[in-house]
Amino acid sequence: MSATTKKTRIVIIGVGAVGSTTAYTLLLRNRVDELVLIDANKAKAVGDALDMNHGLPLLGAASVWAGTYEDCREADIIIITAGAAQRPGETRVDLLKRNVAIFESITTEMLKHNQDGILLIASNPVDIMSYFTWKKSGWPARRVIGSGTLLDSSRFRYLIGEKLNIDSRSIHAHIIGEHGDSELPLWSLANVAGTELSLSEEDKAEIFANTRDAAYKIINAKGATYYAIALALDRICTAILRNEAAVLNVSTLLNDYHGISDVYLGIPCVVDRSGIREVLPLSISEQEEELLKKSATKLKGLIQSIV
Questions:
Q1: CATH pick for 150-304 out of 3.20.20.140, 3.90.110.10, 3.40.1260.10, 3.30.390.50
Q2: Is 172 a catalytic residue?
């Protein structure tokens, strides 16, 4: 790398289970030159950075350190995973009021040092927190991205693949709407190489229920989900840093999308170095459109209480 080439930097704010796993995933996959960890518990960030640094001789060249909000200044991407943890039996939306106060403090400090990066939000309820961050930042919506339903769609594809005994990477299927209880499956567009899925209505109902409720099962079993969401965040970061123009189901601001406006929801979007380049139009069934509108109405009602 020449002296004049800008080093790529990702800052992760919040190094709990999701943040630290995301950091480790980015490090293992050699995504960035500089990785900065910020947490209210500075000792935890220091410990994670030290632990990762000890593996660098076995991995490759990178700089990892526990930083401050000033380190956001040179960041290409700032990932926010901070927030109160989802408790067993608690819905994502139950987290709302506890997390808004945390985000108010984080965004105030971050914005003092960075005005041209990309914000990637993973904290739940992610669609509402993304909308709140967009409003607070004053940035173009394309540069404030929620992790959306990328993870849900991955779970969906995995479960369909398991049922059909087909590699899940060859399954083309989407979950859209809220990252949460009102999300919906797009069965009308699901396919394998353009071929309709040979699934019964009972199979479809079971697959979707297991997709929607996956987080609750994992949380009840081990307290938190973090491996798969870390991979989803890594995928989004890669699309940005490599200017891939990849289609990913991320959460973004909708403007007259099937009649829906002024809310963040997970929708297939083209993601490149600018952030969200384009929200893709979807030809969905009337029933699916109605469910999407219900998801939007639910979230808009909650947004009204915090903005």
A1: 3.90.110.10
A2: no
